[in-house]
Design brief:
The chain has helices spanning about 5-10, 20-25, and strands spanning about 30-35, 45, 55-60, 75-80, 95, 100, 110, 120, 130-135, 140-145. It is mainly beta and about 160 residues long. It has one domain (about 30-145): Rieske [2Fe-2S] iron-sulphur domain (Rieske Iron-sulfur Protein, 3-layer Sandwich), CATH 2.102.10.10.
């Protein structure tokens, strides 16, 4: 029996999964906002990849270059709002002084948004799931997710096809 890394880590694509890439490329492309409408340090909430309660995400222009950032200054990023540790809700927890989300209300985990949502402090052992963004002609689109959204067996488990 062959074990494929993508089966062990749902929602992630590894180089060894080249022949199975289509399975992971099925994220919907969703229009999120226009670049011109974003202000530094003012989060904008949206739903992605579906409209379920676990899919609340936020888009933020940090004003400083960030891992996975898009836009002219590579400072626009987006993340899911559920802590990967035990699903604590991180809505409205952005701290502009440090460019972090948190602390999580359950176990005080804080995530660095300039470094792909990596853990700064707390109990979480995985980064905050980052929404992959694409910018075209001044419009931002969500096109995928890095990491597994808390509570989902797969990020695409509840996405309706069609």
């Amino acid at each position: 029996m062959t074990v494929v890394l993508g089966d062990l880590f749902p929602g992630r694509v590894f180089a060894d999964d080249e022949d199975r890439k289509g399975k992971f490329a099925a994220y919907p492309k969703k229009r999120i906002a226009r670049l011109a409408d974003l202000e530094v340090d003012r989060p904008l909430e949206f739903q992605y990849p579906d409209d379920g309660p676990h899919s609340i995400s936020f888009l933020i222009r940090l004003g400083t270059k960030a891992g996975g950032g898009v836009g002219p200054d590579q400072d626009i990023v987006a993340f899911n709002t559920l802590c990967p540790h035990q699903g604590g809700l991180l809505r409205r927890s952005y701290d502009a002084r440090w460019k972090v989300a948190g602390p999580c209300p359950l176990h005080l985990t804080t995530f660095d948004l300039t470094r792909h949502g990596m853990v700064v402090a707390g109990h979480a052992t995985e980064a905050l799931p980052q929404v992959v963004l694409e910018e075209k002609d001044g419009v931002l689109y969500a096109v995928g997710i890095l990491g597994l959204i808390y509570g989902y067996p797969s990020n695409l488990a509840f996405v309706k096809e069609g």
